[in-house]
Amino acid sequence: MSLADIFDGYIVDLDGVVHLGWEPLPGAVDTLRELSRRGKRVVYLTNEPRYARTSITSRLRGFGLDVAADSVVTSGWAAAIRVAEGGASVYVIGSAELRAEVTRAGGVVLSAADASTADRILVAGHSDFSYAELRAACRAGAAGAELFAANRDATFPMPDGPWPATGAILAAVETALGQSATAVGKPEPAIFRLAQSRLGPLTTVVIGDRPDTDILGGRRAGLPTILVGSAPVTAETRPDHIIADLPGLLARSL
Ligand SMILES: [Mg+2]
């Protein structure tokens, strides 16, 4: 018996599980195709805030996976829905694709020049982060805007080692504003429930490579968890199962 025999719904992390950087990890695509062949349902849940859901769907399709657009949930998209509530005006530290997600969600995205009139600030990692953005967020915060973040991840994995992520930039913003953000992405249980709502009432498991986000969040949402890889765990982040890589789901080891 394998783990894939136990579960019918899969909430699967992307970075470090399905791909690393822009390259699929060995055996990951074949495993996901096999799950699909067996009638299993998969939702991808990523803390990646730089790319729109449509971009991530295209990337996965480029790997040869048959992925529906609504089976991808990102922290950027979930955060965009949250900050856009009520048609709010938002100053965004983040990529052009994230700003477009906020606009699609019904928010009014402000320029840096208008930041002091923002209802909310949204912070997300992106490679063009600048002091000018930090200053604009500072003006928005001083004028009373609420602070939100896509997540608190310090880094994300890349083939040449970890790269700074949203949490690193958020630390600068929180320090400058003297306030703590409401984070939307993993390990917050709400984003797992959002992902689960796309699967329906199936026996669902959370799969990820980060104990502090994937496993902790899955546990908080009351779901069983599988850790991919060998990251150290604590009592709070202990998974139900550990596999070396995604093909481990199909190994007959139970
Ligand atoms: Mg990951």
From TrEMBL:
What's the domain of life for this entry?
A: Bacteria
Q: What is this protein called?
A: Haloacid Dehalogenase Superfamily Class (Subfamily) IIA/haloacid dehalogenase superfamily, subfamily IA, variant 1 with third motif having Dx(3-4)D or Dx(3-4)E
Pfam families per the UniProt record, alphabetical: Hydrolase_6, Hydrolase_like
Task: Write down the InterPro entries for this protein, in alphabetical order.
Answer: HAD-like_sf, HAD-SF_hydro_IA, HAD-SF_hydro_IIA, HAD_sf
The organism's lineage is: Bacteria, Bacillati, Actinomycetota, Actinomycetes, Pseudonocardiales
The record ties this protein, via PANTHER family, to:
4-NITROPHENYLPHOSPHATASE-RELATED, HALOACID DEHALOGENASE-LIKE HYDROLASE DOMAIN-CONTAINING PROTEIN 2
| Naturally occurring in which organism (per UniProt) | Actinokineospora diospyrosa
